[in-house]
Amino acid sequence: MSVPLPRRRLLGAAAATAAAAALTTATPAAAATRSADVIIVGGGLAGLTAARAVVAAGRSALVLEARDRVGGRVLNLPLPDGGWTEGGGEFIGPTQDRIRALAAELGVATFPTYNAGKNLLYKDGKRTPYATDGLLGAVPPVDLAGLANAATVQATLDNLAKQVPVNAPWTAAKAQEWDRTTFDSWLCLNAPVPSARFLFDVATTSIFSAEPRELSLLYVLFYIASAGNESTPGTFERLTDTGSGAQATRFTGGSGLIPQRLAAALGERVVLNAPVDRISYGGGTATVTAAGLTATGRRVIVALPPALAARVDYDPLLPAARDQLTQRMPMGAVAKAIAVYPTPFWRSSGLNGQVVSDTGAVRSTFDNSPPDGSCGALMGFLEADEVRRLDGAAESEVRAAVLADYVRYFGAQAAQPTAFLLQRWDNERFSRGGPVGYAPPGVLTQYGPALRTPVGPLHWAGTETSDYWNGYMDGAVRSGERAAREVLAAL
Ligand SMILES: Cc1cc2nc3c(=O)[nH]c(=O)nc-3n(C[C@H](O)[C@H](O)[C@H](O)COP(=O)(O)OP(=O)(O)OC[C@H]3O[C@@H](n4cnc5c(N)ncnc54)[C@H](O)[C@@H]3O)c2cc1C
């Protein structure tokens, strides 16, 4: 589709293009052999951060990345005019200190997510714009009984989360009780008012891209505790909020610039098109094979989500606890749909582009326009049961469903975008879903310690192994830094 958008459109295309051009990563030659102190499996934020830290400490590192690009769940998507938008991880917020610091070191600037004007609640067929600067903040104005119930539930979740140590949630005093409970059954007891239940259902799918019935209560409490840093306890609101929460800020040029710049600095230490299929280890070394490349190292950092780490063949077999952990942490089901328009037309109706809805393929949206508003971009999430319902649907069907939702929310103008981008993470061979590999009941208490415990020379990174901001870009960076500290201490 051709789109008459001016240059300088979404998110500083020029900067993004320059960084991509600087990427001098290698592709494995047939039957090639490489060696390094540390072999890193996976060139997402976790793996690249780990490599950067290893190299900074004067050790050699080699990153093997399966795709023909770095970044994993972080991905800049090109627009027809040469601009960019983001198909994966995008927002950052307060207490996400490590991704913020990394971006600053790499010269990637930030700007506030568009948040001026009213949010939109779409419920029971009714469309209600609402201001977010009142007493309720961004909480959608459901009935009073629902609001009262929701306030109690939120306070209770925050209090229970304070009892969960982020580095070992399985040691919480009530870990067993909470880990045999789904979040759904807990909500059935604690959020009996239907409108309150609606608020937590929509928040849950927005945060995890999974339904409450799929999640362990212990895992949800851990995730809330994890939404903070060493000096600021996590809260439920910080997970859901835009203005002062995890969706507050975006990156100029797109989040994809961060992995691109990390890889550019690592140069030939990053090998693309290298899907690792086997890791053999023992006797103080490890051998990693990928598409005809054999890499040997003294340490290996596997920087993959558990579900992907499970697809690698380990020789000798990993301890059962680690192997079975990776059989039990599925990825959420998520897609992002971005519709581009000549202008952010909803702004002139006093709307900020953010929707909370009880109906449709897309039930939460954001204004993803570039910082100068030179065109309009509406980004919607398709999550959990809603995206599963569209499994196997043609892109044209998904597009029709998404645009029907956008028309219900923002009016007839939304029907005719100049570009439409769909990024389905459940169809990606090297992601299999997103945003995070989550823990169903019984996993953290039985297998949690295997998340990070090294096995011989093998160390584990990836956002799923992080204490703070688990599931987020910040958690990925933290995990890479932690794994690098581990291997450097061991070398
Ligand atoms: C739709 C969506 C929206 C999101 N929104 C946000 C957000 O707004 N803010 C936020 O902070 N986070 C967000 N996230 C989450 C964030 O993107 C992730 O937490 C983060 O990018 C994970 O990084 P990682 O390095 O741990 O894993 P990954 O990015 O998954 O990296 C793993 C890498 O390993 C590669 N790989 C896989 N298998 C192999 C193999 N066998 N051999 C070699 N390489 C392999 C993959 O290709 C990938 O590059 C979102 C994610 C998604 C999908």
UniProtKB/TrEMBL annotation:
Query: What Gene3D superfamilies would the database entry show?
Result: 3.90.660.10, FAD/NAD(P)-binding domain, Guanine Nucleotide Dissociation Inhibitor, domain 1
Amine oxidase domain: which residues? 45-488
SUPFAM superfamilies according to UniProt: FAD-linked reductases, C-terminal domain (SSF54373), FAD/NAD(P)-binding domain (SSF51905)
As given in the record, the signal peptide range reads: 1-31
The record's listing under Pfam families reads:
Amino_oxidase (PF01593)
Keyword check for Isomerase, yes or no: no
| Keywords on record | Signal
Keyword set includes Plastid: no
Q: Which residues cross the membrane?
A: none
Identify its protein family.
Belongs to the flavin monoamine oxidase family.
Q: PANTHER family recorded for this chain?
A: AMINE OXIDASE
- The name this protein carries in UniProt is Flavin monoamine oxidase family protein
Source organism of this protein record: Streptomyces polyrhachis
